[in-house]
Protein 1
Amino acid sequence: MLNFAKFIFSRMLLDSDKLRFALPRMFPPSDPKLSAIRMKNFISTYLAWKYGLKLKTKPIILQIEPVKGCNLNCVMCGAGQIRIQKLPFDDFKMIIDKFPEAMFINLFYLGEPFLSKDTLKMIRYAQGKSIVVIFSNFTVLPDPEDVVNSGLFEIHASIDSFDKQKYNFIRKAGDINQIINKMMSDIENFETDEKEKMKAGFEELYQEALRNQLIKNKYEYENMNGNTLDIVVKNLKSLVEARKKLRKKLPIISINSVYAKETKEDAEDIIKNAIELGVDRVKFQRLHHDIPGVLHVPDMNDLQYIIELKKKYKGQIKISIMNFDFRGDHPKGYCYFAYFMSVIHVDKKIFPCCMPYPYMDIYKSLLGTVGSEEEISRALEKRQKLIWSFRGSPPSFCLKCPLYFRR
């Protein structure tokens, strides 16, 4: 168990300052009862995962989808083809409150989180109770100082290549102008009766700030001849500079790259750019499934290349290798996602993990909905049955997944 705790802390890049930030959120000293519940649940979850013990557990990691749909349309995702839906803040708050055992909140799934004006508000609320992590394509970023001051623990910028042509091909750089205009229209048409419900005019001030930020992004986008990667890099630089200006170590700023055979040649350039930009980490996420004629899943030789790069740049930047069935930077054995996490979509439906649809039958993998106490109880019972049967008779969608067992 000590080794697993070391694995978690190493992924969090913990030094003494980050540890002082993280531990009170994982085990709040002001709420010893909650701390005891979380510790018991963590130990039970670990024993269930490591040794197959049939213990009652609840998710330690909640991956919550603030926005479904995106202003980009990446070849490995296709979220740009989905109608944009946003999780209301009150629903988010209810979800957080219904799962007190969750120590880690990941704010993303099939969409760009910062397309919602409520996302920073969600971070501020959740960070008082948990470690909060977010992934963004960095095309539309709130004020960098607001992001730094939000209590966010880590933010990932999704960049698969610093070659503009390849970036645009993979990310299918969407029309930022279009999404900015849509968001500004939403702000302008915000219902008056809804405004009256806001506390002390905070939302009106926030909307004004957001409007100004969007106008600034729109102007910059037009003056960069519509090159999305330039906007992404500029926003990333702004966040690094804001953190430095505020003399803070958090959030951890990372670049997250989908690693495929076709992007292997970009890996070292990504690392070099990350060092130059001053970010803390590069994460290479293994492509989950082939996209015929476009991107293909890397093999063991491709993993070895990243391992060599990791050695080469040791001491200069942290490099993490994620989601390889032959371990990578994950602990070996049965998939710990199944035991430790649950995913909640924007419509409040609960699923066992964050695997993409090609692996998961969306209907068979559905656990339930976050609603009444009875609905949540049924969903957790279904999750419990999945965990207890995971080793002996796992569901078909788990057997399809390359992460079911890491060698």
Note: The longest strand covers residues 252-259.
Protein 2
Amino acid sequence: MPPALKRWLSPHASVLSSPQNAVRPFLDLPLLRNCSLLLSLFIAFSLEPGHSAPADSTSLDEAIHQLAERVAAIPNLRGPLRPQFFQDASFAADTGKDWQDTFRKEIENHHLALTDDPAAPLLRIGLGETPTQLVLSASIRVSDKDEVCFFSLPRSAFRAANLPVAPIRIERQLVYQSPDRILDASTIWDGAEGGMALLDYRNADLSILRLDSSGQIAQVISLTVAGAQPSRDPRGELTVRASDGTVLLPTKGCDFTWVTSADAKCHAAKPAWRAPTVLSPSCNAGGWKLLTGTSDWSTPDVMQVVPDGPRREGSAALLSDFPGPILSINGEQDPASALVVTKNLRTGNYEVYKITLACGN
């Protein structure tokens, strides 16, 4: 097994001892639960040639065949299975969904039925690439155990679109989690103390929480008292500055200040919702756009990081998976970072991650 893969499969994930108010440096390296994280791993760290890739003569169809064999060989795996496919944007124009159809036929040839039934076990299959390899991966949870299969082959075996091979990787940090519903998060930039602000929904009350740099609640400003009534499906966007900020709700805008403990002032408004976040790491000034992978709030989400601009979109993609649906993405004043809010479907907690695009492999 390649050393890069061994390092990622080792149990590095930390446990936060105070889930209610937890803000700590935390590098989230869970066991690879699904194919999208595996794709991210291969894109971030190119595996050593010759250790994981088959012979140069291997075709994409043969790689799909061998991946299906490995999936079928997973102990205690029973059908029918519900397939979910992920694909680097660069492959869409070249392969369409042909490779997905090939995988379906191969897996059914191994006597594993496929279905669209949402109650069936989820089999996630992905196709991605590194600067030197194509990577096929599959993941499924069997008997409370995460099973991951992968197969890689040289890029020379398949001519994809020319990719701008930029030395970019995704760094992800869990910075806060809470059982209360978090609608949005924003970093506070005041030059000294720092911290974070949250748009919090608890017991039918909308509030802005200011957290200090240690994760403790330093201030609470109620929006409900100011006349902001949450909808049945509450959502909102939070923008903060050193001494004040603004909250945009579906029918209202609310202004507040950190200087006093007074409630926010809300007024009728038709807010323009936040455009997709674009990050610009120092080694790639062209910018990378952060997009969510699904609108289904009952399944784990995948964040796609794609080059921004009409000439660059679709030419490459980095993927990062999350333990639940992505509820908001808020770009920070740091041009290379953003805060991502998600709901962990296993624990039920709402979590805030800091996403940073770093330079170098």
Note: Residues 1-30+164-361 form one domain.
